[in-house]
Amino acid sequence: MEFEASIHGDSFNLSSAVLLYSDSNNRTYATKHVVELMDGRPMIRPGRPLTEGDYKHLVDGLKPAERPTIEWNDPKILAKGLGRTIWWSPPQQRTLFFKESGLASRSFEGKNTCPTPGLVFMVIDGSMYIYAFKGAQAPGKTTKLFQAPFFNVWASGKVCDGNAQKPDDDQQVNLDAWERFFFGSNFTHPNFSEKDRLTKRIDPALFWKKQIQSPSPTFPEKVLVDINLTVSDMLQIDFIETANRITARGEF
User: Fold this and answer.
1) Structural domain of residue 40, as residue ranges?
2) Which stretches in the chain have pLDDT values below 50?
3) Out of 59, 169, 226, 239, which residue is the most buried by the measure of CB atoms under 10 Å away?
């Protein structure tokens, strides 16, 4: 038995298969499998989890004129689609809470209203990502992103949930609820130990301890660390794979 398709003179042969697995909560898991011909019959071989790169390849190849896209929006929501929401906030004063942790010698106790830089947030699949940008104007697609200089954030920009309570299911689209989730939690320690990787030219624990004791009028953007990303990168289908390649020594 042969499986072929012909579209406008082009010939296509069966080469792989995607299997979908679902549970009672409508969560779906996908695997990609190579298809081989054995005695003239197609056989699905053992597979592997479907990656974002695989998904991008499928989207790029299937009905290109109708493929899903993320549309650019204004003013607070920058983009929405493909299971993610991206929004921004200008530099502002926020109340920050710091709590000592036995997991890190550089942790400390304290709270105060401190300046924070302009920020770009993203929520995707129930996880939150956060990045900083320079200036006070609304970011555009070409705006450079920097490491968010906060504790509890990995090098990829993903927020470590810890014991913080995420917004309930009915609040998943509430952007203020997500910001409260992040800034209302206790900052316990930097998520990596690499020098000049969270805040340039100053230890991050010392930086925030000084801010708690005597906040500066505005956030000192000179401490922000360039991570070679722009807002446009966040609109790509395979952005999570891109973010996961951004690493730092001593992550925990």
Assistant:
1) 4-50
2) 1-7, 74
3) 239
